[in-house]
Amino acid sequence: MVIFIYFIFLLILEIKDEKNEKENISESEEKEINDKKNIEMNEKSEIKEDKKEIEFIPNIKDETINLIKEYNNLIEEVLKIKDTGNGFYNKKNYEEAEKYYRQGIEKIEKFSPINQTDEYNSELEDCKYKIKSYKKILYSNISLSMSKRENYKEANEINLYILNNIDPDDESTYLRLLKYTLSLGDFEQGKKIYEDIKNKFSDNEEKFERIQNNCQDLIKSLKEYDDQIQRNFYYKLLNYTLTGIGIFTGVCLITYFAKKYYKSKY
Predict the structure, then answer these.
(1) pTM for the complete prediction?
(2) Which of 110, 153, 169, 171 is nearest to 135 (CA)?
(3) What share of the chain is helix, strand, coil (3-state, %, to 5)?
(4) Cα(94)–Cα(35) distance, rounded to whole angstroms?
(5) What count of Cα atoms within 13 Å lies in the side-chain half-sphere of residue 115?
(6) Could you report the per-residue pLDDT of 68-113, keeping only the tens digit for each?
(7) Could you tell me which CATH number the domain at 61-149 has?
(8) Would you list the domain boundaries of the chain?
(9) Read out DSSP for 39-104?
(10) Whether the Cβ atoms of residue 225 and residue 187 lie closer than 8 Å to each other
């Protein structure tokens, strides 16, 4: 009877596993599709091009005009470097792509303008914003390049740097952090990151819905992990129960035969 119950239990679990297996999305196919779009989508979400004409501001200081020129020259150089890196990325030469992305970051970090001004100017502020955005893009692209070589731990160090030092609210970086953590097999940490995402973005319904749509496969992986934990628990519970029943049955049989033996002897 106990063995029959055990086999019924195993049959139920096997049927559930088969159902989950049929529902699984092919990860390799999804990566094949996303591989060609990662860089482009990342950059489009980061930079908002200002299409408005620059307003003429009378009596603008020469220092401000020259400083804007310096920033625009920097932006042009960084864009060329980034685009070269993207070319190598699209050819799947991720190491070479990473070199160019780092070169772009170094160019930004070493930038020391000759001209200085305390004058507020909207075009100058726009230049500074673009430089900060391109710096985030370059770091994001480094993270993507590392992930393509399965260096998930190093890629997540880059993601944490972005969140801690450049943009603490960048949803794309949070998604990469979650994805690479699960790729490392650290599902407990993945659950914590997902909770952080929910706490951070749940107030913004539109943004949170977009994040959920973009990480459905990751959420599914977390659910499957929880299901596996639950199955393991029931397996252990069943084994302990069967072990307990076996021990109890053994003790009863030993007691029974011991009594029978002593009765027949004496």
Answers:
(1) 0.65
(2) 110
(3) 80, 0, 20
(4) 12
(5) 14
(6) 899 999 999 999 999 999 999 999 999 999 999 999 999 999 988 8
(7) 1.20.58.80
(8) 61-149, 162-266
(9) HHHHHHHH-----SPPPP-TT--HHHHHHHHHHHHHHHHHHHHHHHHHHHHHTT-HHHHHHHHHHH
(10) yes
